[in-house]
Amino acid sequence: MVTEIKSVDPRVKRTRQLLQQAFFDLMNEKSFRSISVQDIAERATVNRATFYAHFEDKYALLDSCIRESFQQLLTERLPALSSLSSTNMHILILTVFELISQIHGGTCSPSHKQLDPLFEEAVQQELYKVLYDWLKHAVPVDANRTEQVEVTATAISWAIFGSAVRWSQSSRTLHKEEMANRVMQVVNGGLSQVVSLAAE
Amino acid sequence: MVTEIKSVDPRVKRTRQLLQQAFFDLMNEKSFRSISVQDIAERATVNRATFYAHFEDKYALLDSCIRESFQQLLTERLPALSSLSSTNMHILILTVFELISQIHGGTCSPSHKQLDPLFEEAVQQELYKVLYDWLKHAVPVDANRTEQVEVTATAISWAIFGSAVRWSQSSRTLHKEEMANRVMQVVNGGLSQVVSLAAE
DNA sequence: AGCATTTTGTTGTCTAAACAACAAAATTTC
DNA sequence: GAAATTTTGTTGTTTAGACAACAAAATGCT
CA B90 to CA B130: how far, in whole Å? Predict the structure, then answer.
């Protein structure tokens, strides 16, 4: 489940967008640390109290921004109703590499070491959600297999994510594409324990 | 009084902007006639009932769009606190010419004959407001002169406006600037009956 | 012309957002 | 490091906007 289509009150959708956009703009002007909730609310032409009705604090807002931009990248690249396949897995891995490289090495993001953990947790969790969904549909419906699906999704999500972080922090001698292919092989091996991967 | 700075509820300002923008976009896609209130509300992501809370109908919305775009053109060109002067009068006249030529001859606006009267009334009235304000401050405060100020503002506003319409419907052999200068002379003559115009 | 469909205004109810005010916490500043 | 200033959460009250439902008017169709 990459995107959740809820029929929410238009006001809610609008306010959330305004806040996210304002935050995004501010991030390109000054450091995360120096951005206050007041700044964000003011820029978004939204009352400060309204901010707190939507987000716990500015960290929560950042978190939602990361998760949603990741989700958007995926919906752009994956077919509408994606399932477990060799092709889709490759897209997924490549997307994670690109996202991580944007966050870490990108010039657009200040990326203080303080909020790297937040980025990491968000990306890994979103990754897990996609993988879990794929596996759930690829494995025969069996209560006993549920646990195995969870474990497999967890392991693979960390495998992909960890590789991406390590690569982004390294000298990056290899291209994203090459890295993605190597990770693919590892993932395939782990995956083959549970389900066979269609070449599509 | 070119612009009115009211401290309105941010929601009101936002909704009005959304509706005006939606209308503007739709005007570049289809004819005024074929645009329904439903279309506008939908495009603006605003409930249809909310539309009616702000505007009588789509004609009223069009009217506000014209008036406000005129006002914006003026605030861009005139100094912050403008007063009656030769320079400012020239700017005012030229702006009217440009606005009218946009509306009538411009390729951007379909300009059906049906709603020309609406354009005309809106522009003329806005023009009157500016002139009245200028004259009120230029003429010595005297209750007896109030009537004279009103008459003068009316006459001059029609003089400028009428010239602009006539020119826009003609073959336009002369440039806007030349026309503006000629109108200036006429206006100066009428104005000199009431107040002397500073050359600035 | 006559019938189907769309659009229009309007209404009442419910919810989200605005706003002001507050004490507590965190920053700055000197 | 103490005082001044800013920011933070939170709350109660008020208002704007969402939504559904409606009859009446306008449009479109053949």
Answer: 13
CA A111 to chain centre: 16
Model confidence pLDDT, tens digit, residues A115-172: 778 888 899 999 999 999 999 998 877 777 888 899 999 999 999 999 988 888 887 7
Of all residues in chain A, what percent are helix, strand and coil, respectively (each to 5)?
Answer: 70, 0, 30
Q: Of A18, A55, A179, which is closest to residue B13 (Cα–Cα)? A: A18
- B47 to chain A, any CB pair closer than 8 A? The answer is yes
Asked if residue B189 keeps its beta carbon closer than 7 A to nucleic acid strand C, the reply is no
- Looking up tokens 């009005």 gives B16
Helix (H, G, I), strand (E, B) or coil at A112: coil
pLDDT (tens digit per residue) in A182-194: 999 999 888 887 7
B59 touches strand C (CB under 7 A): no
∠B123-B125-B128 over CA atoms, to 5°? 110
Distance CA B3, CA B15 (A): 19
> Which regions of B63-180 does DSSP assign to beta strands (E)?
none
